[in-house]
Write a structure and sequence with these properties.
With about 900 residues, the chain is of the alpha/beta class. It folds into five domains: about 5-90, Ubiquitin-like (UB roll); about 125-270, Alpha-Beta Plaits (2-Layer Sandwich), CATH 3.30.70.20; about 295-345 and about 550-735, Rossmann fold, CATH 3.40.50; about 355-540, Dimethylsulfoxide Reductase, domain 2, CATH 3.40.228; about 785-895, Barwin-like endoglucanases (Beta Barrel), CATH 2.40.40. The protein has 30 helices and 36 strands. The strands form nine sheets. It has a seven-stranded mixed beta sheet with strand order 15-14-26-25-24-16-17, sandwiched between helices. A six-stranded mixed barrel has the order 31-35-32-34-33-36. α8 crosses α27. The structure holds ligand MGD (2 copies), iron/sulfur cluster, FE2/S2 (inorganic) cluster and molybdenum atom. The site of FE2/S2 (inorganic) cluster has 12 residues, from loops. One of its GO terms (molecular function) is molybdopterin cofactor binding. InterPro entries: 2Fe-2S_ferredoxin-like_sf, 2Fe-2S_ferredoxin-type, 4Fe4S_Fe-S-bd, 4Fe4S_Fe_S_CS, Asp_de-COase-like_dom_sf, Formate_Dh-H_N, Formate_DH_asu, MoPterin_dinucl-bd_dom. Pfam families: Fer2_4, Fer4_Nqo3, Molybdop_Fe4S4, Molybdopterin, Molydop_binding.
């Protein structure tokens, strides 16, 4: 970056070009009040509290760019007086509570530093407030109309829920709906709460008024969010062992001082009275509290008995993508070393296993190809089967921001999701027809010469086969299969094809299908044809991986066919490296995948199943059959925070720590390792997953090694060269480091394949997979296609988000249906309906609207009691067994 030289109060310094005088003055170590300014926002220049003199003229520092050679004065008596008067004038209009002792607001802080007496605040007040929302309260009397909240909501969050109304000193912020906050468009990202300088907008509770800029540093624990895969860096404030606030970290490498309703506010579950605090053991049909010794003895005896009766492969574990890398490393090590089986899997099976398989086949490694920072520099975004506004809100906000600043946007989603409203082209394929859609786009790229010939020639393979296949996918035919008008297809292909730096971002709408891996591969074709991967000419193909640590759980080898770092168990050289570290033989036969575990249980071949942090009875498909499998398995162990649906079916339930109570690391969706640190103590007798696994091993007479999580990551690096450069100490120093990272002295590789692809021949492989129809089709009995997915306020099984204020934001599972279908099936908005599939039934509340297309209905699966996964089928991706959650034929019955 080029710098420019300026002088602040006689001292010379260099600042980046384009910096404001405010930034320059602060860089010089001078504190200025700046009540309408926030680094995260565009400057407004309205409060006049930041006045300085630049080259002899008085200027508002926040809106004046630093020019080369400028001489800035801040400290002369007249300037100090001008600023003090401006602040005092603002404060004097507010009621006394604005400056009450101990008020943590920025305004109160500024007044203290300027020696403005709290007694100046003598405004009349009486304008009232709004406390309708569980997390965001408004005190109108404290609003100074600086507009920071409004800009935060529009510029950073992209929700545009707030506006300023009134004139002069009566100006005040209100939600744009004109009604109560709780009924507005607010998605409770907490952005307004975090920027408000006066405490007019606050979160209720003991941390009222704390913001990321003005918080007690000593009381904060820096950690990484334990909900979604974005990986927001958060500062957790705790008091008396309880979380009182979670604030977004300004220096968070992905979130840049932003967060969402889950990471920010959904921590009520931690102290829920329903938290498990003691082990439970099934006796005479019911689960009863017991001590750890008894629980561990039962578990170790049961596992031994299972191995003795059926061999090591009659035991299996489902590891948790919610848990840390170190937890996952130890769980897979336990299964391989203590039990002697590769029967370990994680919920990647249910979401992005087709990404792992597809991206590995196309490019060589299983993660996304580019860093999100790169993606953000794209000039055209192709967002496919992903709804980041709800499921990865901080990423959704950053993407929307790009689009509002001019990037082209193509959205491919059957539903009118949030980003689709801003798209240049919204492609709405029939669920399950992606492969045809992507081939249609590729056909146009080829036909119109929008490919990168040189790249194709030098760095790829498979072009002749693909060209031959694509001849069969002209836009008209693709329109017939997908329902997407041919003209839209052509327009989308041109946007992507003509962009200078296009990026592909995708989600479960690509993977959770009968042909999910083919979907990933044919989507990857587009980036390859365009030369937009591994080059400066684009930002690759990037899955928005879901769980906080689903990338990491897989990286750590909690998968049946690979060891930590993705070496294949079937490869003797890979095994021997692990054997050197672990000192025991590693089984060479790949283990069971999650659905195969259930099938083995039903057929009597699986004698023990340890389910760690996955509510399989609620979230795996065809739930009636899952329950049957657990019923048939002689020993089911469940490590949980709550008595989940799965825990209710278990023989032993072990109480464990949540992300706010443990030490370790997560890997986010763009492959960054970040630290997780305990902010509050464990409840009751709960233990971490890490300690639980070690304790079970010890009870079975084996010392697993790895005394601490830091030791586990170090050991993992010894086994998997791609992680060898990572350590807790390094992450403590550097914050976030992406993998591959073989060397402790080198930065990790954020953008992959700049030299060569990691495939055996170093080339990117085009795939010529024909379109095949989904596993389920509608018919006269089941005329509608059900798509399942996510809502912004809840998280997966809802075990954490249903226990706290989020429940007030979204109290039930809704079934969205189009008004044509509502009329056809005589369904009224708000009415309870029964949804029936060929596999089971669920009860949901109908919501009539236009978000779904006619013939399609949509619901989430956040309330296990409604039974959504009793509807979904056994159909699964032909390559990876990822369930076809996105296509189920159903009918809706009013009863
Ligand atoms: N609020 C919230 N956030 C979450 C989660 C949560 O439960 N709640 N869960 C986390 C997890 S585990 C994951 S994996 C991620 C998932 O994040 P996403 O992948 O964004 O989530 P989904 O809503 O399941 O599905 C995405 C979209 O796919 C579309 N779709 C369905 N079928 C098709 C199709 O055939 N073609 C195309 N092109 N699109 C289709 C759906 O309409 C839907 O809008 O979210 C994570 N974040
Ligand atoms: N119909 C339908 N079903 C779906 C999907 C869909 O799109 N449609 N999506 C699928 C996808 S992508 C996913 S990832 C799965 C997610 O499904 P799950 O993994 O089952 O869902 P979660 O609610 O994230 O977490 C599971 C459990 O882990 C517990 N838990 C949280 N933290 C920890 C921890 O640190 N340790 C332990 N031991 N337990 C912990 C929680 O209390 C919760 O009960 O759902 C899948 N199911
Ligand atoms: S966007 Fe994801 S990681 Fe960030 S606060 Fe929300 S749930 Fe947590
Ligand atoms: S901070 Fe500069 S005018 Fe308000
Ligand atoms: Mo997921």
């Amino acid at each position: 970056m080029t710098g420019i030289g300026i002088e602040v109060d006689g001292t010379g310094l260099e600042v980046p070009e384009g910096a404001s005088l405010l930034a320059a003055v602060r860089a010089a170590g001078v504190e200025l009040p700046a009540l309408c300014s926030d680094d995260r926002l565009s400057p407004a220049g309205s409060c006049r509290t930041c006045l300085v003199r630049a080259d002899g003229r008085i200027a508002a520092a926040c809106v004046t760019p630093a020019s080369a050679g400028a001489r800035v004065e801040t400290a002369t008596g007249d300037l100090v007086r001008l600023r003090r008067d401006a602040v005092e004038l603002i404060a004097s209009a507010l009621p006394p509570r604005a400056l009450a002792d101990g008020n943590p607001s920025e305004l109160a802080h500024v007044c203290r530093t300027l020696s403005i007496d709290g007694a100046v605040a003598q405004g009349p007040g009486g304008r009232g407030g709004d406390d309708s929302h569980p997390y965001v309260h408004l005190d109108r009397d404290l609003c100074i109309a600086c507009g920071r909240c409004v800009r935060m909501c529009s510029e950073v969050q992209g929700t545009f829920a707030l506006t300023l109304v009134g004139r002069g000193s009566d100006t005040v912020v209100v939600p744009g709906n004109g009604g109560p906050w709780a009924e507005s468009d607010c998605v409770a990202c907490g952005g307004c709460v975090d920027t408000c300088p006066t405490g007019a907008i606050t979160q209720p509770g003991p941390a009222q008024g704390l913001t990321s800029a003005f918080r007690p540093a000593a009381a904060a624990t820096r950690t990484t969010c334990g909900y979604c895969g974005v990986g927001c860096a958060l500062d957790v404030i705790a008091q008396g062992g309880e979380v009182t606030a979670v604030l977004p970290a300004r220096d968070g490498p992905v979130n840049h001082g932003h967060a969402c309703v889950k990471g920010r506010f959904a921590h009520g579950f931690v102290t829920s009275p329903e938290r498990l605090t003691q082990p439970l053991l099934r006796r005479g049909g019911s689960l009863e509290p017991v001590g750890w010794d008894e629980a561990l003895a039962h578990v170790s005896r049961g596992l031994r008995a299972a191995v003795d009766a059926g061999g090591p492969d009659s035991v299996a574990a489902i590891s948790s993508a919610r848990a840390t890398n170190e937890d996952n490393y130890l769980i897979q090590k336990f299964m391989r070393v203590v039990i002697g089986t590769n029967n370990v899997d994680n919920c990647s099976r249910l979401c992005h296993s087709p990404s792992a398989a597809g991206l590995t086949a196309s490019f060589g490694l299983s993660g996304g190809t580019d860093s999100f920072d790169d993606v953000e520099r794209a000039d055209c975004l192709l967002i496919v089967g992903a709804n980041p506004v709800e499921a990865h809100p901080v990423v959704g906000a950053r993407l929307l921001n790009r689009v509002l600043h001019g990037a082209g946007l193509v959205v491919a989603d059957p539903r009118a999701v949030g980003l689709a409203l801003h798209a240049d082209v919204h492609l709405r394929p029939r669920p399950g027809t992606n492969v045809a859609l992507f081939h249609g786009l590729a056909h146009v790229l080829l036909a119109e010469g929008l490919t990168d010939e040189e790249f194709l020639c030098e760095r790829t393979s498979g072009l002749p086969e693909l060209t031959e296949l694509l001849a069969g996918y002209p836009p008209d035919r693709v329109a017939g299969i997908t329902g997407v008008p041919a003209a839209d297809l052509v327009a989308a292909a041109r946007l992507y094809g003509r962009a200078e730096r296009p990026a592909i971002v995708y989600g479960l709408g690509v993977t959770e299908h009968l042909h999910g891996t083919d979907g990933v591969r044919s989507l990857a074709n587009l980036a390859i044809l365009r030369g937009a991967v591994g080059t400066d000419g684009g930002c690759g193909v990037n899955p928005l991986r879901g769980q906080n640590n689903v990338q990491g759980a897989s990286d750590m080898g909690a998968l049946p066919d690979v060891l930590p770092g993705y070496g294949r168990v079937a490869d003797p050289a890979v095994r021997s490296r692990a054997e050197d570290v672990w000192g025991v033989p590693v089984p060479g036969r790949p283990g069971l995948r999650i659905p195969d575990m259930f099938a083995a249980a039903r057929s009597g071949d699986l004698r023990a199943l340890w389910v760690i942090g996955e509510d399989v009875c609620a979230t795996d498909p065809d739930a009636n059959r899952v329950a049957e499998a657990l019923g048939a398995c002689p020993l089911v162990i469940c490590s949980e925070l709550f008595l989940s649906e799965t825990a209710r079916h278990a023989d032993v339930v072990l109480p464990v720590a949540s992300w706010l109570e443990k030490d370790g690391t997560f890997v986010n969706f763009d492959r960054r390792f970040q630290r997780v640190r305990p902010a509050v103590p464990l409840p009751g007798e709960a233990r971490t997953d890490f300690d639980t696994v070690r304790a079970v091993a010890t009870a079975m007479g084996v010392d697993l090694g790895c005394a601490t999580p830091a030791d586990a990551l170090a050991e993992c690096g010894g086994l998997a060269p791609v992680f060898a450069g990572l350590s807790h100490q390094r992450l403590d120093r550097e914050g976030a480091v992406p993998w591959p990272c073989p060397d402790p002295d080198e930065p990790g590789e954020a953008k992959l394949y700049t030299e060569r692809f990691a495939t055996s021949d170093g080339r990117a492989h085009l795939a010529a997979a024909p379109y095949l129809p989904p596993g389920e089709q509608p018919d006269d009995h089941y005329p509608l296609i059900l798509v399942t997915g996510r809502r912004w306020a809840h998280y997966n099984s809802g075990s954490m988000t249903r226990r706290g204020g989020n429940l007030a934001l979204d109290p039930v599972d809704f079934l969205d249906l189009h008004s044509d279908d509502a009329a056809r099936y005589a369904v009224r908005d708000g009415e309870e309906v029964t949804v029936e599939s060929r596999h089971g039934r669920a009860r949901l509340i109908a919501r009539v609207g236009e978000q779904t297309a006619p013939g399609q209905v949509f619901c989430s699966f956040h309330f296990p009691a409604s039974g959504v996964n009793r509807l979904t089928s056994h159909h699964a991706d032909a390559v990876t067994s990822c369930p076809e959650y996105k296509v189920t034929a159903v009918r809706v019955v009013v009863s």
